[in-house]
Design brief:
Layout (H helix, E strand, L loop, with lengths): L1 H14 L4 H22 E3 L3 E3 L2 E3 L9 E6 L2 H7 E3 L15 E8 L5 E12 L2 E11 L10 E7 L5 E6 L2 E7 L6
Parallel strand pairs: 8-10
Antiparallel strand pairs: 1-7, 2-9, 3-5, 4-6, 6-9, 7-8, 10-11
């Protein structure tokens, strides 16, 4: 009977000993917190798409895809014209707080599509990922597709344009343009 009492006390003592599993959870939580801090450093960028613009035919584009970062209303007017109709609205950019980003395609008789698939900011670099397609039967006319969007300029030093995951162009934003 005494041995049973000693055995029960020993089991109780071992069961109430130091909790080593708590330390393991704490280390896992610390690792998760560190991972979250790295992920939180990359954040989504609010891109405001602009409609009602076309590429002026005075713009000579040698590449199949051209990427633009514009911080001046006059430069925007030099590159893009307004496509005003009776029923559409022309979006505008506040250049005091935003940069204009744009992707244009070369003239083509095929139907062209440009779609922003994702945008993020990693430090002072903004990454814009696009889906760009030319498809369909040749048409009797040519056109050049343009995608325009405004991004906040605060802290932006570089804008990278991607077709899928392939880098198309890196544009450094000068200090005078921010």
């Amino acid at each position: 009977m005494k041995n049973l009492l000693y055995a029960g006390g020993l089991i109780l003592l071992v069961a109430c000993g130091p909790n080593t599993s708590q330390n393991t959870v704490t280390r896992e939580e610390e690792q998760a917190d560190t991972t979250n801090e790295v992920v939180n450093f990359q954040k989504d960028v609010v891109v405001t798409p602009l409609s009602g613009y076309f590429v002026k035919n005075t713009v000579k584009q040698s590449d199949s895809i051209a990427c633009w970062v514009i911080n001046d209303a006059q430069e925007m007017k030099d590159v893009f014209g307004m496509a005003k109709t009776v029923s559409n609205t022309i979006d505008t950019v506040d250049f005091s707080s935003h940069l204009l980003t744009a992707v244009t395609l070369r003239l083509s008789s095929l139907e062209q599509k440009i779609e922003l698939s994702s945008s993020k900011q990693d430090g002072n670099t903004v990454e814009l990922h696009f889906i760009i397609m030319e498809e369909g039967e040749p048409r009797s006319f040519t056109s050049a597709m343009a995608w325009l969007g405004a991004i906040p300029k605060t802290g932006v030093k570089t804008v990278k344009f991607y077709k899928g995951d392939q880098l198309i162009k890196r544009v450094d934003v000068s200090d005078e343009n921010r």
